[in-house]
Design goal:
The protein is an alpha+beta fold. It has 2 domains: about 70 residues, no CATH class; about 50 residues, no CATH class. A two-stranded antiparallel sheet has the order 1-2. About 25% of the residues are buried.
């Protein structure tokens, strides 16, 4: 798969997950060969969480084997406040649910058409299904809080 094909596919995946088109830096993060950068310097509100989570998901699930093999099997967030943890989990669960990749069940308030969570939806419950995780961690994704 060419870098251009990967970009188009990542763009579609990102848009389906978030409802927004990705910024160029988010597309580059998903398609870049080699390791994912350890630091993202982007202004507040321009999608660093979406960039990290969805680029990692893309690389682990949909990219060609060379990129998949260079991508860590786990994505870890260390956050200084509980409210940031809850916000990050809520957003990531929403994106994975919209992509059909969520392992487990999520209940939402204020869902859109087709019962998919919208940006304004609020996560009321998430129950992981550990039995749905493959040994390589790339069939479905589970959040462990």
């Amino acid at each position: 798969m060419s870098a251009q094909q990967e970009k188009i596919c990542f763009r579609e995946t990102f848009t389906r997950a978030t409802g927004n088109e990705p910024y160029p830096y988010q597309e580059r993060l998903a398609a870049v060969g080699g390791a994912i950068p350890q630091l993202l310097e982007v202004p507040t509100g321009l999608g660093k969480t979406a960039a990290a989570v969805l680029a990692w998901v893309w690389r682990r699930r949909f990219a060609e084997d060379t990129i998949r093999n260079q991508t860590p099997r786990r994505l870890v967030f260390c956050l200084p406040r509980r409210v940031l943890v809850e916000q990050t989990v809520g957003e990531a669960v929403r994106w994975l649910d919209r992509l059909g990749l969520l392992a487990g069940e999520a209940d939402w308030e204020n869902t859109g058409d087709g019962e998919l969570p919208m940006r304004s939806s609020r996560l009321t419950r998430y129950e992981p299904d550990p039995a749905d995780v493959s040994p390589v961690g790339c069939r479905r994704l589970v959040f462990i809080l």
